[in-house]
TrEMBL record:
Name used for this protein in its record: Archaemetzincin
GO BP: proteolysis
Complex and partners: Monomer.
Lineage: Archaea, Methanobacteriati, Methanobacteriota, Thermococci, Thermococcales
Family membership noted in the UniProt record: Belongs to the peptidase M54 family.
Molecular function per GO: metallopeptidase activity; zinc ion binding
Role summary: Probable zinc metalloprotease whose natural substrate is unknown.
Species name: Thermococcus eurythermalis
Ranges annotated as spanning the membrane: none
Gene name of the record: amzA
Amino acid sequence: MIAVVSIGTLKRSLIEGVVGFLNDYHSRFGISVEFSGEIPTEPFSVAFNPLRGQYLGRVFLPTLSALKERLNATAVLGITELDLYEEGLNFIFGLANPSLKSAVVSVHRLRNEFYGLEPDDELLIERAIKEAMHELGHVFGLRHCPNPRCVMHFSNSLYDTDVKGPLYCPVCEEKLEANLRKLGVFP
């Protein structure tokens, strides 16, 4: 099972859209995806950088990994409104650690409103699905893909996220299946 948690409160439609898509996709590998509830943002306050007004993404992953263990899940994905960054980068849409089997996605910069545009909940869900699929791909050992339509293509900007599709290209999907077999998740 892949556990999905919201870090802070998120719209139910966003969570349901992401979990529904992830479950439909991963069920072909015998992996269910379940929403495991909301966790508070307070434990992550140590990740806050007041000079940047952002949270250091890597700080989220060990806590999420511990939650994965408690839930006896294969992997865990946290989704948050908090604005994330990594050293050397202005921001990140998400981050994953294959050894911890944990990932986090921020919807902060996936929202049209961040760019002064009208809200679009459907587009936000589509973008969040792509970033969730991308980070879970990393969790299961995939690297960035040169194919700009593959969900594993690196998103340097929102444009990159909008251009790519929500699925893995045939090359990445083959690698994913092989990696899931090695993990004993997929027969």
